[in-house]
Design goal:
The complex is a heterodimer. By secondary structure, chain A is mainly α. Chain A is globular and about 50 Å long. By secondary structure, chain B is mainly α. Classes of the chains: A mainly alpha, B mainly alpha.
Amino acid sequence: MSVVDPVAQVRAARREGIGLGLVGVYGVSFGAVAVSSGFEVWQACVLSLVGFTGGSQFAYVGVVSAGGGPIAAAAAALLLGTRNTLYALRLSSLLPPRGWARATAAHLVIDETTAMALRHERSAARTAFWASGITLFVTWNVTTLLGAVGVSALGDPEQFGLDAAAPAAFLALLWPHLRTRLGGGVAVAAVGVALGLMLVAPAGVPVLAAGLVALIGIHPRADLAVPRS
Amino acid sequence: MSAVWVVVTSVALYLQKAAGLAVPSHWLDRPWIRRVLGLLPVALLAALTAVQTLDSPDGPVVDARLAGLAAAAVALALRAPFLFVVVVAAVVAAGLRALT
């Protein structure tokens, strides 16, 4: 990429962020899956409004649906949620320094907004973060409610392929990294670890353990931040 | 389902994010931490993709979700926009289930 007008970069980042935010409509799948797993509509909405991190929400509901107790479900959700702590650490210098703005920004730190912010440079990165975060928050919560309320009328969410929406969204976020040898290698290794542990470990553990693959970055040459072509 | 647990878990999920912003930013000055944190989303997103495609209450299964994911990969290779990719995955999975 050659030198580009910074104003145009910010504009492009906003457009991209809003576009990504629209992906939040798969909240309809969360709302539907939650209610068909025995949760109340308001409980699905609290998880989306206050928890607001799709992977953990699906994990929580999934463990309960599989017969796990509330503590096992919370543990699975929070194990998955530790990555948000690390994302926040990664984005820390980019986000507002203090006060309500920082507390609000914290709420929007999730897979999608982090991936979005890291695709851009400084001010465009901030724009991409807020544009994707606010759009996602609105679409995710509105569609969680619609899915939760609508599931009794619509029936099984799997019938509409809604359970395939979340992995497709994760793959889309991962896609740009698969073009580099390091990114592709880390992804393949992480999938290997996760699949191996799925057979033996409780829900939530395989994904977190796969995160350990990132420790390859301790090696000085394992650096994704290569110069852009 | 215990309502209290839903609220407690939701609040804890928020606090996890806030904790990351409360940590001193000079932690990131070390290059190895920056490299590991850069690779972390790659590892987690790859694992999440695999787990959410294959998991079930009875262990890993291959079902219509995998076909949906394959369709999503084709759409991504063709540089389709995000939302289109997600919709294609759902439509293919739903279509396959309707046929079988």
